[in-house]
Amino acid sequence: MDFSDIFRMVNLAVGVFMVLGGIAQFFPIGLKTKFVLLTCGFLWGIHRKEVIVGIYLILFGAATAGLEFQIPPPVAKYASFMFSFLGRGVFYVFIGTVILANRWVQYVPGTIIGIVGIAYIVLEFIPSIEPPANMRDADAGWGAEQV
Hints:
- This is Copi associated protein.
- The protein is mainly alpha-helical.
- It is built from six helices and two strands.
- Helices cover 59% and strands 3% of the residues.
- β1 and β2 form a beta hairpin.
- α1 (4-24) runs antiparallel to α5 (104-124).
């Protein structure tokens, strides 16, 4: 059974959740909201660290979603971990834990991404399920299948 489209949709959803988790870094909305204006390294209640992490999460999310459409040759060379269930699963678990913080708008995407990462790690050890074409071949993006 071919699960390629399902895996692609899951990877796109994970990319969207990464972007949403990155955007959530900028907005201190949650159970523990504090607004301190320009004191003690805060800028409107946001640490500088949260801004940097948010930018990285948005970039990683856009790159993860973009890999489902086109795979640039340098990515296949330098980010080869994205082309196996194990590598992508470990990456998703890592990003999921980076997103987790003390606000519910970060719990939700972080937890979903982490669960998908654990599922991908498990799928690495199930030989009957093959990775989609874009995870097997560095040249295959969405729409690159042979008909």
